[in-house]
Every structure is written in structure tokens, then in C-alpha cells.
Amino acid sequence: MFAKPRPGYTTAAATGDTVVLLIGMRVNRFWAVHHWGPVMYAMSIYFDRPAFGLAGATGQVPVEERGRHAAQRLAFRSGAGSGKSAEESVGESVGASAGGERGHDGGHGGRRRRPGGRSRSVVSHRAAPVWERRGMVDQGGAARPARVVHEVPYRAQWESPELVRDIVDGRLDAARDPRWGQSGAATPEEYSWWSWRLCGVACLRMALEHWWGVTPTAMALAGECVAAGAYVRDGESLRGLVHTPFAEYVRRRWGLTARAAELTPAEVAAEVADGRLVMVSVHPSIREPNGPEPIRRGGHLVLAVGATETALLIHNPSGFPGESQAFARVPRRSFGPFYAGRGIVLGPPGGEQ
Questions:
Q1: Residues in a beta bridge with 136
Q2: Which tens digits make up the pLDDT trace of 107-160?
Q3: The whole model's pTM is what?
Q4: Please, what's the b/e burial string for 147-160 (b: 16 or more CB within 10 A of its CB; e: otherwise)?
Q5: Which class is 115-347 in CATH?
Q6: CA distance 247 to 230
Q7: CB 197 within 8 A of CB 169
């Protein structure tokens, strides 16, 4: 543990097909816990693997069973189960609007419009992550989904989630986002142009991190979506996200189950209760439901990550920090005016299409 690091490259003589997996960590200064502690915590994603590590791993263990924390995963490996966490309350965010559109979603965050300059905002509290999955309950003879909240990491369509309000309100040019380089864009201008159109990509990044533990850059995924026909670029305009080719791309490239579908709000909740995530097409103003009514439904994608008896819980890539970004609660009775009635159902690897 306290031996000196060995500098340079280490090679091995091998013949035939060879795969080398080096996954581990080294503690050079034991008392510098603030350096190696986060690394050890991040490595807990591998704690559910067989005794021989990834070399002996086969298949995919659902996150709902294995948990996301070291203690839960060690318990899963020992056969004691993954454990369950108590549900915690989630906050509120609601909405009302109208309109209609079908086919694809433009993907931009949508700028706020306030008549007379009056600011209106949704009050929403972030839900505590709950990875315990619940089934169906019978209420008055009708089966309805009980509370289900999947512990899905949140990603905004801008690299700095805390700046979303300033960017959407026009007080800050997206090109001045200090983290623009993390997007994979070549220039701040390229990042600024794409950032308004990356809501679908942000939803995919959340799903990939949830099921695969990987988070490709936004621009890498956007480029692949263009090649797959999910985005159609014409000069300075962009058509997309087009649902059917996007679902085909997700199946082929990432091995997730994916299908474009027309769904009622109740069907969206049922898909979430069955362990899937749903990218739903809504109007961008769902982040601020007390503002002016939108002229149409759809045009923006959010990720449904939870459902209760009366509400959906969403991750909104263009939501406002502290209000409507992660685990934002939208009552079903208020969801309809924003919702275009279509979406993309995503499921874990090996699930039913």
C-alpha cells in the first residue's frame, strides 16, 4: 500500500486475443482522504461483480436489485439482498398550457416569455433519490402504480446546471458557460448553438449513466444522432429529435431497449412502474407552469423517472436550479396541457422491446 509508484509502462507477453482490464486505485497518502475517498466511492459501481471481477462477469444485474452504494452491493453479492431505503417526500411543480404538434421535438430549452416583465416561477423541491421499486396497488378495483422513483443521475442540456436560469432568461450567453469545453464542442459558439437543442441528448446521457455507468459527451452523442438520422441539419436549422430513428440508434449503439410510442399519461406512469424510463415530449414552459400558456404542446424532451398515484416525477434538462430540474413533481391533471402524447420508452439491456 505504501510502496513507491512504478513509473512508465508495464507490458505483458501475450498471444492470441487478449483483453486487459485495469480497474483499481492506489493510496499514496493515507491521510489525504479527501483525495482517495471520492475515488473509492466512485468505484462502488463494480462491487456487484463476481469474485473474479469483470473478467468473470456475465449479464447485467438491474440497478433496482443491486443498489448504487457499496454497502447495498456487497449485501447483494453475499445474497442478503440489496436493501431498501425509505421513501422521502418529493416537491411540487405543475403546469398548464395547450396546443398540438406531432413528429419530432426541436430539443431547445425554450426562452422564457413574461408579459409585462413579470417573473413567474414554479416552486419545486428536489426529491431524495429512492431506488426502491414498488409494484402495483389495488385501489377501488383499479390497479394503479404505487410510488416508484428510480435513482437516475440528473444532467442538464447545458454543462453548468446552476446557470440554466440565467441562460434561458437571456442574462448570460451560453457561449460564456465556463464549462462549455466539457460538452466536447470545438468552440464556445458551437456549444452555444447546440446547447439549445440538446434536451434529448441530455435525457439519453442520464439513461446511459443510470444503466451503463457511462456519460459520453453531449457533442459526441449529438454527432452520432446526426449520422443516425435522429437529427437532420439544414444549414443553421435543425430538425429533431426524430423519435423513430433515435430509438433505432439507441438500440443499435447502446444496447438498451427503446421504442417510439404514443402514450397517455397513465401509460407513461405504467412504463416507469415497470422499471423503464420515458422521454416525453412536452412544452418547455413545463418548468414554469404559472407563466403564459404555450401555443402548442411538445417541442421539448424531459425524462420521466418516477410515478406516484397522482403525479409524474421528471428530470427536466432545461429546468431551473432548485426548482424544476431533478425529480420535479408534475400532477397528472396538470401534465396533459403540456404533453404532446408521444415519447420514447427506454429500458435496461436485455429487456423486452
A1: 145
A2: 655 554 433 333 332 323 333 333 333 333 333 434 444 589 999 999 999 999
A3: 0.63
A4: bbbbbbbbbbbbbb
A5: alpha beta
A6: 9
A7: no
